[in-house]
Design goal:
The protein is an alpha/beta fold. The chain has 4 domains: about 5-15 and about 125-280, Rossmann fold (3-Layer(aba) Sandwich), CATH 3.40.50; about 290-375, Glutamyl-tRNA Synthetase, domain 2; about 380-435, no CATH class; about 455-550, Arc Repressor Mutant, subunit A. It contains 22 helices and 14 strands. Strands 1-2-3-4 form a 4-stranded mixed beta sheet, covered by helices on one side. Strands 5-6-9 form a 3-stranded antiparallel beta sheet. The chain has a 3-stranded mixed beta sheet with strand order 13-12-14, with no helix packed on it. It is elongated. The termini are far apart. The chain binds one RNA strand through helix 6, strand 8, helix 8, strand 13 and helix 12.
Length: about 550
Amino acid sequence: MTLKDLADIMFPDVTLTVDEIEKRYPERDLEEGAEVTRFAPSPTGFVHMGSLLSAFQDFKLAKDTKGIFYLRIEDTDTLRTVENGISGIISDLANFDIYPDEGMISETESIGNYGPYIQSERKKIYHAYAKYLVEKGLAYPCFCSKESLDETRKIQELNKERIGYYGSYARCRTLSVDEAYEKIKNGEEFVVRFKSMGDFNNKITLNDRMRGKIEFPENDMDIVIIKSNDKLPTYHFAHAIDDHLMHTTTVMRGEEWIPSYPIHHDLFKTLGFKEPLYAHLGLVLKIDENGTRRKLSKRKDPEASVSFYHEKGIPPEATKLYLMTIANSNFEEWFLSNPTGKLTDFKMDFSKMSESGSLFDVEKLFNISKNYISRMTSQELYDKSLPWMEEYDKELFELMKKYSDYTKAIFNIERGGEKPRKDYASFSDIRGGIWYMYDELFKDVNYEYQKVTDIDEIKKILNLYFNEYYDINDDKDTWFSKMKEMTEKLGYASNMKDYKKNPENYKGNVADISTVIRVSITSRSQTPDLYEILKLLGIDRIKTRINMIK
RNA sequence: GGCCAGUUGGUGAAGUGGCUUAACACACUGCCCUUUCACGGCAGCAUUCAUGGGUCCGAAUCCCGUACUGGUCACCA
């Protein structure tokens, strides 16, 4: 029996040779310096904040360098794979304006010449390489049971030795070709393990694009490369094969991958592949109940999921700005000096990317979102919030649609210019800010009167104001001087400074008067500019609302 | 336990040996502006960079030890 015989019986279905495969994945024809990056999630449902961050950085790097960004689906863990998981990921990405140049574009379709882009469909390719390794004596079948592996582990723990399948613990490594062949022939289950030639006492160095040099002991673990039940590859093996064939130049991934670098290095070296560059991103953390930091978890933390922010009505662009600020330490400053700048104008710099995990700060996200929304035109705000309303606030959606011009005019109050009004951190804040503008919603309201609460006084003010002073055609200055005039007439102070000096001389001040009007017409003590509000509501609505006051 | 990473205010952080008695932003507090709220303006908020030692005329920045936090050691990615 030869290694060739063993390889044949292990992989009876392999028809392609490694050389043939290599020919199908030629070098990419790209400009000097162009980066090929990828986002490679498992289709477990939806995209997590941390993965979105890396997807966005990958996308950005490819765009910055006129390279290629592709989407590869890592579905080698069949247990975790979720129905329609791929379209979920694609739509989450699209929501953030991230479109792959290559790779999956729907549940089943892909674009690009370096596919298939779903790992489960690349089985033959992995098998061809695994077979090649077996033939070369660089991989072997392993028949160890779960139980015996557990036992080994216990012994290692007891002896305070390194845990794993290596050295004399790698029992199947020394099995003769004949023995292995016989076992397979008899139908014994096996995994394929990589035969590491590494030595734990040697050092290897990873030159991380963000972190610089990191030193490790060389890998000497005979890791599993092909699993027994479905014969799919493990992550490590698929990573080496795929990123080699697809010619990825830079792999960005979470720092939880740093420890497995020696394995990847070993694999690339043994297979004769050129290693990609790596950048290990800091994790996105949160503080849990015990006050300690931990990785945001998709399962435990609702705020980890990208859809959480969508539901809240945070514009995706704002989330993107936030992620940029936590991932790139120089981004915030850049953005402050280029508030209207396009994200594409910002150039990424690995040395400015943050290495330590950052706490996810919802307050900061809200602030960024608030600023972002305040810079929209009323038309933009209308267009972007409408679809959100359709999904989450049907009632307001209908009104916004029915009275579209009116709604846009409402949005336009104190919008535009140098210092726009900043009162919406999310689309879900809109209702609270404008509901009273619609008659349909202005029912059974609670009036939030402040200092003046006496109903007779209120009525007196309203009657005087709307019968003798208010004219919808007045410009703002005239409008306000009339307000002051009436204020004086009623025995209130029109000048705040005078009032502050001698409050006892007055019944109140002009602010109290406008508050009465504001509350009577809108029920709310806090609204945008009253002049604009009155004008927009129009005299008919105003009259109706005055009559509602009992 | 082994290996690896990280550690600058409540938070994100700037900082790469003297320009730092530590920038900027968020949050918070106070004042001012103001017809409400918001906006805006001003001020306050780390004498100190986890800690101990060392190098140096000089250290948040370089070196060594320690501590703490996180990650990882699967036929999960």
